[in-house]
Write a structure and sequence with these properties.
Two copies of one chain form a homodimer. By secondary structure, chain A is α+β, with helices and mostly antiparallel strands. The first copy, chain A, is built from eight helices and twelve strands. Chains A and B meet through strand 6, helix 3, helix 4 and helix 6 of A and strand 5, helix 3, helix 4 and helix 6 of B. Chain B binds a DNA duplex through helix 7.
Chain lengths: ~260, ~260
DNA sequence: CGTAAGCTTGACAAAGTTCAACGATTGTGG
DNA sequence: CCACAATCGTTGAACTTTGTCAAGCTTACG
């Protein structure tokens, strides 16, 4: 597992080739566009959709939201009325404790679904914040309920998305509860590499979207610890790191860090 | 939040008064019984069920499974074909790393749903193990899909159960990533107290179903640390502890432990 | 271009782990 | 039903990992 630790929905790599526009029609904050041309389609529309529901579903158009770095998609306590699909860009989710402490619980990439935490109580239990320019597909929950009843494939796909989030969080718990700091950082790097590869980016060369502090929060350690471990891995020839840019030099070496 | 940290689906307390039989008809490992008389009904059947689906749903009968201490409901890797509702008893869930490390990810009480982690990949990602005599309601996933299409309330209820599990795990991540050992143990005790209260048990007097080692695993620390903290809390007059039996002496004192 | 935010590194402190010994409890087979 | 083994729990002492504080440097942004 290792690199699967912070895993993400499985996708056909082809679905995510380059970043770019993907039928954004206007620059307003709520953009309309046909979903049938969207690159995320394999994710939105289960591949085996039967005739009638497919035609109906393909006609469906969901609004978009464009966010800039630091803007929130939703905040903890906000009324839940939609789930969100990341189309382009990166989003972090953050959970808060009343005493001000907070924890980054996820870093989300194109194709991933956000906001399902709001369904339980009708209000979101976390914040979702854009880490740069980001394009989000907004799927109103009542639409989803209806679609889900009409097409069994949509329902099953939705359930799988829920389930995937549960598995991802389970693995995060395992990471936070059972791994040493170096192992956690390693799992984080390997997982990023894997997920970026699935989206058509380089497996070994990428940009961390998070600050050291955010990485530390996600991994349950202090920013200084993250920094020291990056430096140590660089000295050991496992990675090259310059600010947020990472190059994995020895993926095998990294894999060896996990499990002693 | 504090006590909500390891939270559970919200239930009307009345639904869980004493433990006992709850229409178990035979002693075989797969017991049949009418679900319409079940004490878990408020959980299985959303309260606002409309006429027709209610009649249909009430006629539905799901098989049961009886487990003894240490028996597994499912194991990691097993084919997913059903979700499970705890009727009586307690169940732990455990996630494993290939190198043998494992982590307890949850302690589940009557009314809670298990096994949704298997939907993502078609195989379970965790083990579920009974902590004593346990009665489980087995809900085949294909039945659930059908029911969920037929009655919007069932669908929404199911989604809420999924969502609740996501929120619970988020809070676990927060606990594991941001709290000190004493705070984690406190959150664990307060959460147990709250959930047992909701099921009609004493808020201050209860039995830990887990060993020190299992508690440590759940909370991301070693068993010795758990033991020391229990001893310290006892000396401080916050709790009385004797083996697995706990009495909370000062719930306010415990609440004060969280957040410095 | 200046200021704030982000990153690195060192020295030290604190929290938690490890190892070890021993006592208590539980469960099982004689 | 007892006895013995295995598991479980407690506690101390030494050690390891990670956190804290502080200083200085770099980068990014208005």
């Amino acid at each position: 597992m290792s690199a699967q630790l912070l895993a993400t929905p499985e996708l056909s790599p082809a679905a995510f080739r380059p970043v770019s526009e993907c039928n954004a029609r206007t620059m307003s904050s709520a953009v309309q566009g046909s979903c049938s041309g969207c690159r995320l389609q394999e994710l939105c529309l289960p591949s085996g959709l039967s005739e009638r529901p497919l035609r109906e579903f393909a006609a469906v158009v969901f609004p978009h939201r464009r966010l800039k770095a630091g803007e929130a998609l939703f905040r903890s306590g906000a009324i839940f009325d939609a789930v969100y699909l990341v189309r382009t860009g990166f989003v972090k989710t953050v959970v808060l404790l009343e005493d001000g402490r907070e924890q980054v619980t996820g870093l989300h990439m194109p194709g991933e679904m956000l906001g399902m935490d709001g369904l339980a109580s009708g209000r979101h239990a976390s914040d979702a914040v854009a880490l740069g320019d980001t394009d989000i597909c907004v799927v109103p929950y009542d639409r989803l309920e209806t679609l889900s009843c009409e097409a069994r494939e949509v329902q099953r796909h939705l359930h799988r998305m829920f389930s995937h989030e549960i598995v991802r969080e389970q693995r995060m718990m395992l990471l936070l509860g059972s791994m040493r700091a170096e192992e956690r950082v390693t799992a984080f790097l390997l997982n990023l590499s894997e997920r970026l590869t699935a989206r058509g980016y380089s497996p070994s060369d990428f940009v961390l979207r998070l600050t050291r502090e955010e990485i530390g929060s996600l991994l349950g350690m202090k920013l200084e610890t993250v920094s020291r471990i990056f430096s140590k891995f660089q000295k050991a020839g496992l990675i090259e790191i310059d600010g947020k840019h990472v190059r994995i030099v020895s993926i095998e070496g990294l894999r060896g860090v996990i499990g002693r």
